[in-house]
Design a protein that fits this description.
Elements (H helix, E strand, L loop, with lengths): L4 H8 L7 H19 L11 H16 L6 H12 L8
Helix pairs in contact: 2-3, 2-4, 3-4
Length: 91
């Protein structure tokens, strides 16, 4: 994973371990979405740009905080805007 569980928990301001599995699943989903928007696997980067890491943390936070009312098109649009400079033309 590009972002560690501890980094995500710090970003989310979560203490304790009771939600680690949930946060981990949100992180995995966030990485999948970011890779899809970038149109390349995250492993293609020799060093993952900070904006990519921030996009993953942002998506993870949205999944966590908005889990009952997440508006996916808004999430995807925001991530596209963050990552436009690193996005490939196609897979």
């Amino acid at each position: 994973m590009v972002v560690t569980l501890e980094e995500a928990k710090t970003w989310l301001r979560v203490d304790g371990e009771s939600e680690d599995a949930l946060i981990g699943s949100f992180m995995a989903a966030a990485e999948d979405i970011v890779a899809g928007i970038l149109r390349q696997p995250l492993s293609d980067f020799a060093e993952v740009p900070e904006v990519v890491r921030q996009a993953i943390l942002y998506a993870t936070a949205q999944f966590y905080e908005q889990r009952e009312a997440l508006v996916t098109p808004v999430l995807v649009d925001t991530i596209k805007r963050l990552l436009f400079a690193h996005r490939k033309e196609s897979w």
